[in-house]
Write a structure and sequence with these properties.
The chain is α+β, with helices and mostly antiparallel strands and 276 residues long. Among the domains are: 76 residues, Arc Repressor Mutant, subunit A; 74 residues, no CATH class; 38 residues, no CATH class. 32% of the residues lie in helices and 9% in strands. It has 9 helices and 5 strands, in the order ααααββαααααβββ. It has a 3-stranded antiparallel beta sheet with strand order 4-3-5, with no helix packed on it. The model has no long low-confidence stretch (mean pLDDT 82).
Amino acid sequence: MCHERTRLTRNFTVLDNALIQHEVLGGAAIAIACYIASQPEGTRVDIRTLADKLRFGRTTVSRALNALEAHGYLRRTVVRTPDGRVFTHTVFCHKPSQDQPAPQKPPRRHPPKPAPTPPPDPEPTPTRLTRRPLPPVPRPGFPARELLRVALRVLLDLRNADPRLYVSEADADHLALGVAAWLERDASPETIRHALTSHLPKGPLTHPAALLAHRLTTHLPPAPPPLPTPTHTPPPPPDPIWLCDDCDVTFKSPAPTCPSCGHTNATPSTRPVLRC
């Protein structure tokens, strides 16, 4: 290797070979030190500026500045201005002080050996996830099959109004009883759909089935009043049959007055009334 030397009279920087040929500092630290040494006083040499200028990562620049400070090439002090602002004042030392001991190169650290993996259990016990139960819902007085079918259809149609109201099969079986209770109280499917989908919170729903169960319970409409009990009036008893002893006439009348002769001494009779 040989040099083709040119005498520089301007725009050059004098650097110590001890810095350029440093055995402990890494290449990034040496490059950053050379760049700082070539800049005029007052230049910003913070981590962000150096990373953008030299195209190093901020972590790399931070480690390099710490290494230069440890070897005496940098002195950084925190300064607080009278107006309360805080900044770091950096001094670059072209020739570090000789009385400062240079830190030794840290020994290479070998990664720890992985611990031996214990053998798996011959019969691992599967962990069973505990499912949080849903709140209770109203129940119909008579859960007919057709009523539950209509209730399940109303519940499954909620996802068309809001896709967030998707429920699983197990949750749908539980919530269908609450919808059936509404239908049993003369609530139409449109009324139920409006009560369950209106004024929903914004954003994702963590547990839509629990929200539906809460609304089915708290917004349950009142039960219709019972139908009036019809009053049954028994029919009046039939008029008794009388026999007039004077004219031998059998008649049916509430009073023992003979319609033929007008006598009032008729006696009860068991003979049928003969109609002409």
